[in-house]
Design brief:
single chain; 386 residues; mainly alpha; abc type-2 transporter like fold; 2 domains; four-stranded mixed sheet; elongated
Amino acid sequence: MRNFFSLIKGEFKLFWSNSVLRILFIGAPIMYGILLGFVYKKGKVTDLPIVVVDEDQSLMSRKAVEMMGDNEVLNVAFIRYDQNDLAKIVAENENVPAVVIIPKNFEKQVMTKKYPEVLTIVNTSNILTANYASTAIQVCLGTLKAGVQIEALKKQGMPEPVAMTQYEPFKTTFIKKYNRSTNYMYFLWPGILATVLQQVLLLGLALSFASEYESGTFGKLVSENKSLLKIMAVKIIPYLLMSFGIWILYYLFTIWFRIPFYENLGALTFVAGVFVLSVCFIGILVSILIPSQLKATEVLMVVATPSFILSGFTWPLSQMPGWVVAIANGIPLTHFLKAYRILLIEEGTLAQCHDALWAMIWIGLICAVLSYITLSLKKRKILKTM
C-alpha cells in the first residue's frame, strides 16, 4: 500500500513538473468558467438595435414604432423618414439585425382595406439575433393588426367582446417549462464547461504513459509493479481527484453567477464521476497506444475538439446522418450532456438517465479492457528487451 501511495505521489510530481499541462489543466477551467460566465451572464438577448423607416409618419405608424420600442428584445436605435441613408446606416452599424420599412400612405391604405405591406429586412449573418429580432417584430406587428381589426369592427357597431371573438376564434396558450426565462446562460454555460473538463482530462492523460515511454521509465514502472490494474489506477486516480476539485470550482461558479441549480446535484455528481472515468480510460488507451506525447495529444484533441458540436446539445442528433450519430454516441460528453439536461434543466430523476449512464459505462469498460490488453502486450515487449 505504501508503494501504491508513493506511485500516486510520483504521478502528481510528473503532472506538476509539466508547466504547460499544469497551466492548462488548472487554468483552463478557471479561465473559461469566468470568461464564458461573463459572456453569457445576461442570459437573454435584449435591446437589439433596429432601424425603422417611417415613410408614412401617421398616428398608426408612430404606434407601430412605439410598440417595437416597448418590446424588451428590441431597441429602436434609428428612425428615418426615407430610405436615402439606409444602406449607409446598416453598413456602419453591423450589429443591426433588422430594418423595418413602413410605406407611405400606410394608415390610409389600412383604413381603406388596401392591405399595405410592411417590409422587414432581416440580417441573418447572425442567426440567433436574427431569430430574436424577427420574432419580436412579428409579435409587435401582429398585435397591431389585431388592434386595428378589432377597432374597425367596433366602429361598425359590433360590441367589443363579439369583435374579439371575430378576430380571435380560439385562444392559444404557451406554457414554458424548466428554463422558463429562456436564459441562455443556464442552458449553454454548463455544457461548455463540461466540454472544457473533458478536453483538459484528455490532454493530461495523453501524457500519462507517453511521457514514461519518452523518458525511458516505462520499463522500470512495469518491472517493479506486477499488477497492471494497479499501474492504470495510479495513472487515473490523480486526475479523478483533480476533477473533483474542478467540479467543486464549477459549483462555486454557479453561486457566483447566481445560477439556480440546486436540485439533483448529488445525482449529477455521480453521473459526472462516471463521465470522468470513461474519459480517463479513453485518454489512457491512446496514451498506451501512441508512445509520443505530441502525437497522443494531437489524436485526443481531434476527438475532443468537435465533441460539443456532435453531442446533440445545441443541434439535435435526430437531424444528423446516422454515421455522425454513431460517432457522437462513442464520445462520453454526448451522454453526460443528455444526463445534465435531464437532471438539472428538466429536473428529472437519475432513473431517467439510465441510457446515458450505461452508455458511458460501456465506453469506459471497453476502453479499460483494451487498455489492459495493450498495456500487457507493451509490458511483455519491454521486459523481453530488458
